């Protein structure tokens, strides 16, 4: 699916372990033909949920530079680490408690760089990141489209993926209306929408929007 690093087995996603024998969050490990695979459950990762639901776009390459906004403890970033094994993932996390766990995850994965920072203020980590090929956002707060657009502009990224949590934007609006409003905002910011896909039933009132710079 992605150049030999993501596989489907009986409907379940796996990534090829970049660091065999090391679990990040208690995921199942399996070995086939002397290659270790990490199960990537859609219940634990919005990116996995997107792919499991038939997502068509996956811009990650082996040498991609990825800026990950809202890295939390590093569950999904660790699978991205398996995929961009010759690249790097700059992991932005705002909450100190989650950041401590993230640092522990990054200790075993040199291509993951933990950064304690606020995704709404990309200028504060510009001196570390410099540029990115892909920006992925999983930040549950208002203005999710603008947050990723600001980072796209700051780091001149080609592709963006944002997991929109409708209830974080406006609890009074129907989720589909929130998703459409986010699409419109990204278009207003000059980006081309490639796909919007629901993350149901794995994530309630969530959708992944994939877009690019024209």
Content of β-strand: 25-35%
* Structural class by sheet pairing and helices: alpha/beta
Low-confidence stretches: none
**What is the helix content?**
25-40%
Determine Rg (CA atoms, Å): 16 Å
Calculate the terminal CA-CA distance, rounded to whole Å.
24 Å
The name CATH uses for the topology is Rossmann fold
Number of strands: 11
Instruction: Give the overall pLDDT as a whole number.
Output: 95
The level-1 CATH class: Alpha Beta
Largest sheet: 7 strands, mixed
The number of helical runs is 7
CATH homologous superfamily - what is it?
Vaccinia Virus protein VP39
Domain module tally: 1
CATH architecture tag: 3-Layer(aba) Sandwich
Question: What's the SSE pattern?
Answer: EEEEHEHEHEHEHEHHEE
Principal-axes shape call: globular
Please outline what is shown here.
The protein has seven helices and eleven strands. It has 214 residues and is of the alpha/beta class. The protein starts with 5 loop residues before the first strand and ends with a strand.
Protein model, in words:
This protein has seven helices and eleven strands. The mean pLDDT is about 95. The strands form two sheets. The protein has a seven-stranded mixed beta sheet with strand order 7-6-5-8-9-11-10, sandwiched between helices. Strands 1-2-4-3 form a four-stranded antiparallel beta sheet. The protein starts with 5 loop residues before the first strand and ends with a strand. The protein is an alpha/beta fold and about 210 residues long. Helix 5 links the parallel strand 8 and strand 9. Helix 5 runs parallel beside helix 7. It has one domain: 3-Layer(aba) Sandwich (Rossmann fold), CATH 3.40.50.
């Amino acid at each position: 699916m992605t150049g030999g690093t993501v596989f489907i087995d009986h409907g379940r996603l796996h990534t090829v372990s970049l660091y065999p024998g090391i679990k990040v969050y208690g995921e199942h490990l399996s070995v086939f033909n002397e290659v270790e695979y990490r199960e990537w459950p859609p219940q634990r990762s919005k990116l996995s949920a997107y792919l499991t639901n038939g997502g068509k776009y996956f811009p990650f390459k082996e040498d991609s530079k990825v800026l990950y906004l809202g890295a939390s403890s590093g569950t999904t970033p660790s699978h991205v680490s398996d995929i961009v094994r010759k690249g790097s993932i700059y992991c932005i996390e705002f909450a100190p408690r989650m950041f401590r766990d993230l640092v522990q995850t990054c200790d075993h994965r040199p291509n993951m760089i933990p950064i304690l920072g606020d995704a709404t203020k990309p200028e504060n980590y510009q001196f570390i990141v410099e540029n990115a090929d892909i920006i992925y956002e999983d930040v549950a707060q208002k203005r999710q489209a603008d947050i990723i657009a600001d980072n796209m502009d700051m780091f001149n990224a080609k592709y963006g993926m944002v997991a929109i949590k409708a209830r974080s934007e406006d609890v009074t609006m129907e989720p589909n209306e929130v998703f459409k409003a986010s699409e419109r905002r990204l278009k207003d910011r000059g980006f081309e929408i490639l796909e919007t896909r629901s993350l149901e039933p794995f994530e309630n009132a969530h959708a992944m929007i994939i877009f690019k710079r024209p």
